[in-house]
Amino acid sequence: MAPDALTLTDVHAFYGDSHILHGISFALQAGNVLALLGRNGSGKTTCISTIIGFLKPQGGEIKLFGESIDGLSPERISRAGIGLVPQGRRVFPSLTVRENLVVAQQRQSETAAPWNVDRVYDMFPRLGERHAQLAGTLSGGELQMLAIGRALMGNPRVLLLDEPSEGLAPRIVAEVGRTIRRLKEEGQSIVLVEQNLKLALEVADRAVILNTGRCAFAGSAEELLNNEAIISQHLGVFHAH
């Protein structure tokens, strides 16, 4: 049996003396989308930081396709195949769209169709149209596409998307949803941290809700969609934006 793309087993994490993650466990199956949900301050960002190595776990185990990655440096975790699209779409504003992509190209992929500039333009035609434009002049939606394109240039085996719809107009949010679905169709394994519950549950296979650093729910996205009580208890009201 093929190993899961990403597994967290009883992961604990601290900021200074503050115990933030209390024994988090979940698994992302290869080619699936897992939505990581929770109110602000529930531990989602800490969880992402721990997976990517910005924060060292103080117990528990994190595995990428069966290989342990906990405690490695962020660079080594990135090279092992975890890509991050950070909150706030951090790109190089003074570089062109194309330069932002080229500078992010790293490990050669063993896959049949590795990501390159042309393939990113195929996924995001608007970036192709704006390839010579400085990234600092792009709209919010275009910046988000560039941030996702940059992460794909590293040929990640698992892609972490941290709040990709934040601050975007509804029309652009729908576009982000379509992008995630297309990546999933291409076999990309994705962890999606998202405040927009409607978007998250439309694209996710499974969902995990964090509440004060603990797993409050883990199950199928469909199961969560039909569970108003859990949604209102842990996420506040059901926002069908």
Describe the structure.
By secondary structure, this protein is α/β, with parallel strands linked by helices. The protein has 10 helices and 10 strands. The chain has a 6-stranded mixed sheet with strand order 6-7-8-3-9-10, sandwiched between helices. It has a 4-stranded antiparallel sheet with strand order 2-1-4-5, with helices on one face. Helix 7 links the parallel strand 7 and strand 8. Helix 3 runs parallel beside helix 6 and helix 7 runs parallel beside helix 8. It is globular and about 45 Å long. The N and C termini lie far apart (39 Å).
Summarize the structure.
By secondary structure, this protein is of the alpha/beta class. Helix content is 35%, strand content 24%.
Task: For this entry, give a set of tags.
single chain; alpha/beta; 4-stranded antiparallel beta sheet; 241 residues
